[in-house]
Design brief:
Elements (H helix, E strand, L loop, with lengths): L5 H11 L33 E2 L5 E2 L2 E4 L26 H13 L5 E5 L6 H18 L5 E5 L6 H10 L2 E3 L7 H7 L5 H24 L11 E7 L6 H15 L3 E6 L17 H16 L4 H6 L13 H8 L6 E2 L5 H4 L7 H10 L7 H7 L3 H4 L3 E2 L14 H5 L13
Parallel strand pairs: 3-4, 4-5, 5-6, 6-7, 7-8, 9-10
Antiparallel strand pairs: 1-2
Helix pairs in contact: 2-3, 3-4, 4-6, 7-8
Length: 415
């Protein structure tokens, strides 16, 4: 059999990596090669499909080491029983590709994952070896994100954190029942344990850096995870609750949500149709509410319907406000930051500006209009020096007044 060329394998393995969403790089420590030493650099802003402060689009090489896999997860296109074209890189080949692409100014970092070949330990050793080659032999100082394997030996996954800026372990599905049904080779307890160990190592490394200047960096951008949405029967409330638990127990930087996409020769246990992409968007908005707006998972879940699903036509913050109108209207000149953050249409920056301005004068409705995108959305939920909604907040048709216009989501391959 003729061995595939590097470019042919890159085409296969880069395409196979597109299903992994957890490749943002925000939060990494700054490395630089401006002093003439080393190759590559990285910034606090993201590298994969993100924008630097000066407006530049920054990207990374996102690829699998191999799409061969001994596991047979029903939702995965690279599963053992899948009829896909297979390919494989060596650690040296991935390192050479990364350096070659960097020198051509195509990328500024690497996101590396892999199917499980031979064994979990062997595959993890291959991933770590690639990162070692880049860091030690090429003195590469760009961003590296390694996808770690929970079934691998803890000592090997620990070494991954010594070379990578960020590590991630996918929980795959939001419920144990869903994981047992769709990924029989994976174990929820094992995944959770691996995340816990990695989180502990990150905390210990940060503490060591505070006490010892030359202590080694260990995954300075933290760890993240990804959940597949719509492959099982988990509701939005289940997903939000699971994400909140992961944030609290493992101090994750991010939980990514990836809408299930039907794959060729799919298993009969999978749904025939993917969920609407707007569902994924609403989950990201819910995630934002928990991380930056002070909402608990129970409060976000309360915004969902009786079936546990968030409304698709309005954002979860507005859904919560419409459901719990007794908390409104909020006086922008007197309310605490906690309550201002719950007003639909007011973001964290607008709230910070309100708190700053009201120290010197009373805010009027026109002032709030300048701080938000939609004054119409805000008006029923606030009181200002010259505005009081009176009975507007309690109107039965309030949703129709504040909800954005409905636009049908276009299908990319619709006939």
């Amino acid at each position: 059999m003729t061995r595939k060329s590097i470019l042919d394998r890159l085409k296969i393995l880069a395409d196979a990596a597109k299903y992994d969403a957890s490749c943002a790089s925000s939060g990494t420590s700054k490395r630089s090669s401006k002093n003439g030493k080393g190759v590559g650099s990285t910034e606090g802003m993201g590298i994969c499909h993100a924008y630097a402060p000066d407006g530049r689009c920054i990207s990374l090489l996102k690829v699998l080491m191999t799409n061969h896999c001994i596991f047979d997860c029903h939702y995965c296109i690279n599963r053992k029983s899948s009829n896909v074209e297979r390919a494989r890189f060596t650690p040296q080949e991935v390192a050479d590709l990364t350096i070659s692409f960097y020198k051509r100014n195509y990328i500024e970092g690497l996101f590396l994952s892999s199917g499980i070949v031979k064994s979990s330990d062997h595959t993890m050793e291959q991933l770590v070896e690639c990162a070692r080659i880049l860091r030690e032999e090429h003195d590469f100082r760009g961003y590296i994100h390694l996808k770690t394997i929970p079934e691998a030996d803890p000592e090997i996954t620990h070494r991954a954190g010594l070379y990578a800026d960020r590590v991630s372990i996918n929980v795959e599905l939001p419920t144990v029942a869903g994981l047992n049904r769709l990924a029989p080779d994976k174990d929820a307890g094992q995944i959770d344990g691996a995340m816990g160990r990695m989180g502990g190592d990150i905390v210990e490394a940060k503490d060591a850096r505070k006490r010892f200047r030359h202590a080694p960096r260990f995954a300075p951008a933290g760890q993240s995870t990804q959940m597949i949405v719509g492959a099982d029967a988990a509701s939005d409330a289940d997903i939000v609750s699971r994400a909140s638990s992961l944030y609290e127990r493992h101090a994750l930087r991010r939980v990514y949500y990836s809408a299930f996409s039907p794959i060729p020769d799919a298993s009969a246990v999978l749904p025939l149709k993917r969920p609407p992409l707007i569902r994924e968007h609403r989950l990201y908005q819910s995630d934002w509410l928990m991380r930056f707006y002070g909402f608990s998972s129970h409060e976000v879940g309360a915004a969902a319907g009786a079936d546990g699903m968030l409304p698709l036509d309005i954002d979860p913050k507005l859904a919560w406000a419409l459901k719990f109108r007794e908390y409104f209207p909020v006086d922008v000149n007197r309310a605490s930051r906690e309550f201002l953050l719950r007003v639909p249409g007011l973001g964290t920056r607008a709230v910070a500006q309100i708190l700053s301005i009201r120290r010197y004068r009373l805010l009027r409705l026109e002032d709030i209009a300048r701080l938000t995108v939609s004054a119409v959305k805000v008006r029923p939920f606030i009181v200002t020096a010259d505005w009081r909604p009176v009975l507007l907040t309690d109107r039965a048709d309030l949703k129709a007044l504040v909800a954005p216009p409905v636009h049908n989501q276009l299908e990319l391959f619709a006939s």
